[in-house]
Amino acid sequence: MNGLVNAINRYSVADIIGDERARRCISRVVFYICLAVYMTASLLQYTSIKTSYPEFNKVLTQITWYCVYVATANIILFADYSLIQIVLYIAMMILLYQSYKSCGTRLVYQGFVIALSARPVDWKHLRKVLLYGMGALIAICLILYAAGVLIGFEYYKGEKMRLVLGYNHPNVLGCIVMTFGLIWVAVFAKRSKLWDYLVVIALAAFCWLGPMSRTSAISLAFAVLLMLVAHFWGEKLLDCIVIRWLLSLFAPFCFLLIFGLSYLYTPDNAFFQKINAALSGRVAFGHAFLDKYLHTWMGQKIKMVGTAESQKTGKPNMYLDSAYMRLYVSIGIIGLLIVLFVMIAAMLYAIRMHDWGLIIGLLAFGIYGISEVYMMYVYFNVFLMGAAYGEFSDFGLLIRRKEKNENL
User: How many of the other CB atoms lie within 10 Å of CB of 367?
Assistant: First the structure.
């Protein structure tokens, strides 16, 4: 039986269709076109376009679906996955699609498909494309804002107005800047020159002072610390099996942390009051949603009241910001497990390749997901695409001494 499974696993769908150079070239071109269109359409939906141009916003949603359809065909027909991998990933797609139909949130399902379609491209090339692409998208939105196409909503923290620059929330601006900074780290972590540290520190300062997005600033500061650790002790750390376990299970640990705090939260406890205040009420909100909604496998629709709606209608603010808690309550336990699997698979690939840039990106977004929802969307957390390069054999890194690999 094992011999049969191994024989099947040796062959990929690409081998059956034909492993010619043209197939790979077509697959890469299709992926990059899909990625560019999908990220542009998705990020534009986080600007004032969503409310100012509702009909165009609907067109953007349709465009994202077309990208997913093409990416699905690319995965099945051209991606160099083994048959066992392709069967597993198609099963995951079906489960996430069912979760989408239950909860009404398409972004996790779409992101999973786009992430898997990265298989035909090289990560070293992709991260550079992402750096220039994200920089271009930020510049385009700034031009549209300066031209008056995008408008600035007013958000305040205390008496200070937060910088928005045409996006629909200050934390979106903070997350986009953070994503650019983490991609910068992914591209230049190997060299780790003073200039690279200064760039990331400057972006963290902007997030703290401009949009006042504390989580984005803290995640970038965390990335700077990890850059220093990687520079001095990176190779030795990855030789330690305990460190590899800790890195691989970082995202599940972050989930258990925020879930445990939310589940055990009691408003009269001084400890929980301090933790809740530090996380801007997110622990109390998590507890409220756990009390109000069922624990489901395939997800459910939930009603949230954001800051802007609360200010307009007078309804009490009740919003589930944490990516992990949103996954658990709304997307469902199956969806949560799939996203955690993707994070682990991407991390194991990064460990195998000694890619501290990818490791830092995954760890920073792991922290970010405790209090912000954008961790689970591939157009922000581009590091989810690292899972496309993983192999089942990578899990062996958790039980054996890691072999040296100098591919970066």
Answer: 18
The Cβ of residue 73 has, within 10 Å, a number of other Cβ atoms equal to: 14
C-alpha gyration radius of the chain: 21
Distance CA 158, CA 154 (A): 12
Backbone angles phi, psi at 18, to 5 degrees: 140, 130
Helix (H, G, I), strand (E, B) or coil at 274: helix
- Helix or strand run (H / E) with residue 70: helix 54-77
DSSP for residue 167: B
- Sign of CA pseudo-dihedral 397, 403, 407, 408: positive
Angstrom distance (rounded) from CA 256 to CA 298: 19
- pLDDT tens, residue by residue, 226-250: 999 999 998 899 999 999 999 999 9
The secondary structure of the chain in percent helix, strand, coil, rounded to multiples of 5, reads 70, 0, 25
Q: How far is the C-alpha of 175 from the C-alpha of 301, rounded, in Å?
A: 25
Measured between alpha carbons, how far is 194 from 202 in angstroms, rounded to an integer? 12
Facing residues of 12 across strands?
82
Tokens 């460190």 belong to which residue?
A: 243
- How far apart CA 65 and CA 107 sit, in angstroms, is 10
- Name the maximum alpha-carbon separation found in the chain: 68
Here the tokens at position 341 are: 């699997």
Q: Tell me if 183 sits within 8 A of 233, measured CB to CB.
A: no
Quote the CA–CA distance of 249 and 347 in Å, as a whole number.
Answer: 9
Contact between 117 and 81 under an 8 Å Cβ cutoff? The reply is: no
| pLDDT tens per residue across span 125-146 | 999 999 999 999 999 999 999 9
Cα separation, 161 vs 139, in Å, equals: 22
